[in-house]
Amino acid sequence: MIQLCVLVLEIILLFYIGFNVAYIFIYSIAGIFYKKTSFSEILVKKHNKFVILIPSYKHDSVILNSVGHNLRQNYPADKFDIIVIADSLQDATITNLRNQSVQVIEVAFEESTKAKSINAALTFLPDHVYDYCLVLDVDNIIEDDFLSKINARLQNDEMIIQGHRTAKNLDTPFAILDGLSEEINNHIFRKGHVVLGVTSALSGSGQAMKYQAYKDLMREIQSSVEDKELEFSLVKNRIKVQFENDALVYDEKVQNAAVFSSQRTRWVASQFFDFNSVLRSGIFHLLIHGNFDFFDKALQRVILPRILLIGLSFLSCLVIFLPFTQLGWYFISLFGMCSFAYIVAIPRSYYSMNTLKATFKLIQAFRLMVVAMSRSKSGAKTFIHTEHSSTLNNKK
Prior knowledge:
This protein is an alpha/beta fold. It is built from 15 helices and eight strands.
């Protein structure tokens, strides 16, 4: 009887981990075949006009630093506007921003969220002035050629394209792990997906979308997981997200365990919110409407976060030491496949002694992710404030 119970539990665990690993493995291998854009071969016939929205909840020093960098675009000055959505910024900061020819829209809410700030700004801004809307986080710094590259990719009036968000700082073990996780996601959920003709995942910032379409979709979104809700709105409307790996958005990575835990609480909440209804809806859209992009996005609600998956697949290997185990070597094979998929996805720039040292923090990161899951129930309902510094460090 005990042997039968152990076998049933093994089969259930094997199936769940196997599904996760197979999904990651397929898209990781596909990401190898992503083709780099040859911008010299693109004929640029028009310069689209961009509005760059930067919601800023406090973060006075950070917003001044990022805006100063983002104004330095190698793109016609009359073809882009930077608008800071100021929530609880100091008067001196607002004055300083306006002196830099940056438009400031002041907002105030009882409970602040990024979506509320964006919607307030979109309501204030006129229609038919901008072609595309680019959303950045307060700490994001776009490379000087970012708008030129994105504009080149939008010559055929594409709906939306995601830029390559990458680490701005790699100065602590947790920053390295955070940056590593971002790059693995870029390889699997962006490169791998577009290679197989599936919509790219959004990064939460650094995406440029047709202005009016973005404004229309955002009207229905108010929560703190606006990027995930926007993804579902896009796939429901059969809008594919493109990806440009060479258009870099530098994003500050977490400095320590406390910030890592706080940030992951929000991320885990965004991944698992309304899990059952989303998965049922995904199956419905696949079988009835043939919408594979929607189904794939729903499957991502089942996929474990990367640190949890590698940790769980490693721990599952320990079943080989149980007296009644029959499937131990299958778990070891899955751990090997998972590890290989991640290794393939890691950029060569991360192959260093600092990265090796950072891996010793993986056990702590795994524990923090488990804690984040236990706290994630309220994470999709409230704004989780993340601390940022104001400097651009370790630019790759």
